[in-house]
Specification:
Blueprint lengths: L1 E5 L4 H24 L6 E4 L19 E5 L1 E5 L3 E12 L2 E11 L4 E12 L2 E11 L5 E4 L2 E3 L6 E3 L2 E4 L4 E9 L9 E11 L4 E11 L2 E12 L7 E2 L3 E5 L3 E5 L2 E6 L2 E10 L3 E12 L2 E12 L4 E15 L2 E10 L4 H5 L3 H4 L3 E11 L3 E12 L12 E15 L2 E13 L14 E12 L2 E3 L2 E17 L8 E15 L1 E7 L2 E16 L13 E2 L13 E2 L7 E13 L5 E12 L21 E7 L5 E10 L4 E14 L2 E10 L7 E11 L4 E10 L4 E12 L3 E11 L5 E11 L3 E4 L3 H7 L16
Parallel strand pairs: 1-2
Antiparallel strand pairs: 1-3, 3-5, 4-5, 5-6, 6-7, 7-8, 8-9, 8-10, 9-12, 10-11, 12-13, 13-14, 14-15, 15-16, 17-20, 18-19, 18-48, 19-21, 20-21, 21-22, 22-23, 23-24, 24-25, 25-26, 26-27, 27-28, 28-29, 29-30, 30-32, 31-32, 32-33, 33-35, 34-35, 35-38, 36-37, 38-39, 39-40, 40-41, 41-42, 42-43, ...
């Protein structure tokens, strides 16, 4: 084996080394003339400079290493290499049956079973010519593999224009590994720019199963998943409100931190909808704005929507932002959205805020208004606007063992009636200002904690539009005292054959708040808090600040957990209840009671990751007075393997304002054969005997593509529902063609996994 290392050197060195190479060549030629044997010789044109292990293809200082079973020629001009030829410079490697290395031009011409590597890319062909210094050259009848994204193909010829750029003539492209790929792109020419990670095809046609499905005179694609400007794959689908839909987005990659996307969408029944979305991200600021509009043929009116979010740091710790949303009419989100969240959203927020965060305090100025999208069959009252709202909070921990907290707010409330016969009339409005200060002394020791706490709340109102004889100025001062204490006991045990630590955690929470008559106070933002395990350890039964409940009560709870050595909670059981020493008198509207009896409902909970495959989440709110379950939630998830999940949930709610809620929710993702996966979700209302929400579909996973067919039914109001059909063909590593159902699948099926992503085996 003969090895030759070439380095650049000066002219005087050239003259001296020329004589040395001539002698070496003469010896090599003489040896080859007598007999062809593997030779072992090497020459070096600098003083033992080692090769750089991580040299790049464009590293001009990297050596050229040449090896072969037989070498002839003149080492100062041209070396002829035969059998098992290998030429290496940095990240460029050429292997072939035969090759000529022209030293002066720094050029390699290889023939016969050519194999070449340039950085992460691989090529094979009949013949190759490569300038090792400039990176220019070509390969004839090549096959190629791009290392960044697994793209591959074949062509008549590839011309390398530089280390980063290449031109493919009459080539194909696919991410399929098979010799006969299921999908590929045929193009007259392809320009590949690995520096910008962009490929551009001229006269490209996408073939799927031998059938052309998409074509364009000019088509570009990313070589490594990076963003780039151009026409995005069209999306198409069908909805019950608009019929067939076709969207052909165009993406502008303005800068690494800015982009703009145009969304022209043709809706068969309604017309052409135009939308635009801009995103930006910079040092200290970011935001997204989307606007869309349509001249609706169904209603004969112009309809539109706007959504804009922005956040910007004006100075250290000072942040300005806005969140503005608007729709032209009540039905716009339900008529033009495929999203469950967007289509059922009835309150659109319009908010501008300024926030300053100090070391121990935080100040916020905010203006908030709402647009209510009213449902005529189920009207609701719009929340109060707050223009302005100013808050100041402060906290210090462990000041001589004490924790100090302060919270204050000034807000100006205004609103009009949106329901009933008074719709459009001004409601009670005005200013509210409060200050709440509290001090606590936590005593935390191994195995137990005790936290006494005292707080004082002072609130004042100046009101407008009050009733005849009602006061316009109100003041309320309320102290609150509480004591929170708990213990933790542990013991070693076993569960399901595994060593565990079992805990027993009793806890008591006492609250004392004197009664203050609040029957004449307005209700700007208060409501009865949701009764749950966290709320029974709070001091106020109400949320908001217009009602502060009187209290003389104690809460008792007991929790037991089974915990593995790695910290995983295998099982958790809890029971809790609140006991009233005196019936609370404060109510929301001055008439309806919010507590029945001397004790609250009983809360029970049982759940956890029972096994690696099975998890449970069960909660029950039981009324001992009524001797029935008031609310309950029984849920189970079985996930025995990746991309296998079944969810079952039963919900009961007797506190629902519209009637007793009883629902059964079943969802899952499951393989029905080696490549087919079924996905479904049914939310069934037992009293109504109807499907409230539903999803049904199939996914097919091939080696290099995925096909999805999904139908989804979502409610858009109390009396309307929309059905959407998603059809998508995803060509791995290239593009998705059709409408995207992945958001709907992820939202509807807890535990859903994308079938063409690698399996996560950590939990199995």
């Amino acid at each position: 084996m003969i090895r030759f290392f070439k380095f650049p050197f000066g002219r005087s060195a050239d003259l001296r080394m020329s004589r040395f190479f001539t002698s070496l060549a003469s010896l090599a030629v003489a040896a080859s003339a007598t007999t062809v044997l593997p030779l072992s010789a090497q020459a070096q044109t600098t003083q033992n400079t080692p090769a750089k292990p991580n040299a790049k293809a464009d590293d001009k200082d990297a050596p050229v290493n040449v090896s072969a079973e037989q070498m002839t020629g003149r080492p100062d001009r041209q070396i002829n290499l035969d059998r098992d030829v290998e030429v290496v410079r940095g990240e460029t490697v050429i292997k072939a049956d035969k090759a000529e290395y022209r030293i002066i031009k720094d050029e390699v011409e290889a023939t016969g079973h050519v194999w070449m590597k340039r950085l992460q890319d691989r090529y094979t062909g009949d013949k190759a010519l490569m300038n090792m210094d400039s990176g220019k050259g070509y390969v004839t009848n090549p096959t190629y593999l791009f290392g960044k994204n697994g793209g591959r193909g074949k062509a008549e010829k590839i011309d390398f224009l530089s280390d980063d750029q290449a031109k493919v003539t009459e080539g194909t492209y696919s991410t399929c590994e098979a010799l006969d790929p299921d999908w590929y792109i045929q193009a007259s020419t392809m320009d590949l720019d690995s520096g910008r990670d962009v490929g551009t095809m001229h006269s490209g046609i996408v073939y799927f199963k031998g059938v052309p499905i998409l074509g364009a005179p000019l088509m570009s694609f990313p070589l490594s998943g990076e963003r780039k400007s151009g026409v995005l794959p069209p999306t198409f689908g069908v909805t019950s409100t608009g019929g067939a839909e076709l969207t052909v987005p165009y993406y502008f990659n303005i800068a690494p931190n800015r982009d703009l996307t145009l969304y022209p969408r043709y809706i068969a029944r309604r017309g052409l909808q135009l939308g635009v979305e801009g995103r930006y991200l910079g040092e200290g600021y970011s935001g997204t704005t989307r606007v869309e509009g349509i001249q609706d043929r169904v209603t004969g009116t112009g309809r539109y929507s706007l959504s804009s979010m922005h956040s910007q740091t004006l100075a250290p710790n000072l942040v300005f932002g806005w969140n503005v949303n608007k729709a032209s009419d009540n039905d716009y989100p339900s008529d033009f959205s495929h999203s469950v969240t967007a289509s059922t959203q009835r309150l659109l927020t319009r908010e501008v805020s300024l926030n300053y965060a100090g070391t121990y305090w935080n100040a916020v100025g905010r203006m908030t208004k709402y647009q209510l999208l009213q449902d005529v069959n189920n009207p609701i009252q719009k929340p109060y606007d707050r223009v302005p709202q100013l808050t100041l909070t402060a906290a210090r921990q462990d000041v001589g063992g004490f924790d100090l907290n302060f919270a204050s707010e000034f807000a100006r409330f205004s609103n009009t009636f949106t329901t009933g016969t008074s719709a459009g009339a001004e409601m009670v409005s005005g200013d509210r200002m409060y200050a709440n200060q509290s001090v606590s002394y936590p005593i935390i020791r191994p195995g137990y904690f005790i936290t006494p706490k005292a707080s004082l709340d002072a609130t004042t109102y100046r009101l407008n539009n009050v009733g005849v004889g009602a006061p316009t100025n109100l003041t309320r001062v309320v102290p609150t005292y509480s004591l929170d204490a708990g213990m933790t006991f542990e013991r070693d045990t076993s569960l399901f054959g595994r060593d565990m630590t079992q805990t027993l955690e009793p806890r008591l929470f006492y609250v004392r708040t004197p009664y203050r008559d609040q029957s004449q106070y307005p209700n700007f933002d208060s409501g009865l808090a949701d009764f749950n395990y966290a709320q029974i350890f709070s001091e106020n039964r109400f949320v908001g600040h217009d009602r502060i409940s009187d209290a003389n009560q104690i809460t008792g709870a007991l929790v037991s957990r089974f915990i593995e050595e790695n910290g995983l909670e295998r099982l958790r059981a809890a029971i809790g209840q609140r006991f009233y020493f005196a019936d609370p008198k404060v109510t929301l509207d001055g008439t309806s009671a919010t507590v029945n009896g001397s004790k609250s409902d009983l809360l029970l909970s049982l759940g956890g990751q029972i096994t690696k495959q099975l998890s449970l989440d069960n909660t029950v709110q039981y009324s001992e007075t009524l001797r029935q379950m008031v609310r309950s939630n029984f849920g189970a998830r079985w996930q025995p393997a990746p991309k296998k999940v079944l969810n079952l949930t039963y919900r009961l709610d007797r506190t629902n304002a519209t009637g007793i809620l009883k629902q059964m929710d079943i969802s899952g993702q499951w393989p029905v054969s080696q490549r087919w996966y079924a996905v479904s979700r049914i939310n069934y209302s037992i009293p109504d005997k109807t499907v409230a929400e539903g999803l049904l579909g199939m996914e097919y996973k091939a080696d290099c593509w995925v096909f999805r067919l999904v139908a989804q039914r979502i409610p858009t109001s109390s009396s309307k529902a929309s059905t959407s059909f998603f059809i998508q063909l995803e060509l791995n590593g290239f593009s998705k063609i059709g409408s995207n159902p992945l958001d709907a699948l992820s939202a509807s099926i807890p535990g859903y996994q994308i079938i063409n992503k690698p399996d996560d085996l950590t939990r199995y």
